[in-house]
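Consider this record:
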Amino acid sequence: MTWVRGLLGGMRVRILAVVVLVLVISSLGSVLLLRAALLNQLDEEVSESLAREAQEFRLLADGNDPRTGRPFDGDLAAIFEVYFSREVPDEGETLLAFLDGRLVASRRASDAAAPDQLGAATTYWLSLTEEERGERETAAGPAEYVALPLTGSGGEQGLFVVANFPSFEREEIAESLQTQQLISLLALLLATTLGAVLAGRVLRPLVVLAQTAREISDTDLSRRIPPAAGTRRRRSPRPSTTCWGGSRRHSPRSGASSTTPATSYGRRSR
């Protein structure tokens, strides 16, 4: 019986292997798709945030001073003062304002870089002569930015920079994916256990069949495969005896049989 157990054991292992393989592929695929979707959404949010902040600053610089109702007319100090007095940076954002190479105003979110962490990037931004949008490496991680060089009415040189640091949000995404992977692993273990139990129940009739077939000898042909639990045996119909000479009827009450005389073919033909 070793070969029977080995065969059925191999079938059970193959069934479990297929189930586990399908679950692993689906779990990995869902995690990768979720990661790609979340990172793509984050990139879109960062791009929209940068474009919105730059547009708001342009509208303010081209408009009127809300304190006096008069146009700013290139008064960079007033523009920076009004903008930073009412602007709240979004998540991961740092807002910087420079006047003649000096940092005059800054604001940042709790998860964004401080101005003193942007030495090399600040030097590069101050060298710009026209608007630029890009990405640079900093001490706080990669920063996506929009830099707007300005020229005041008195010839002073100004610079407005909005930089976004998505590293913190990417770490949050990574933690969420780790949680998702842990849940998928627990679901995989549960499904594997269930698959093992169900595979054993499915293969149990085959085990009985193989054992009975092995035990039947060439002379012992009366052995039958035992029916599964819960099945009912069908009763074979009661045989009836008929003959050309007559038919035998069984009386349901007395159990006695009576014979009906045969009818002559020749007498009918007459």
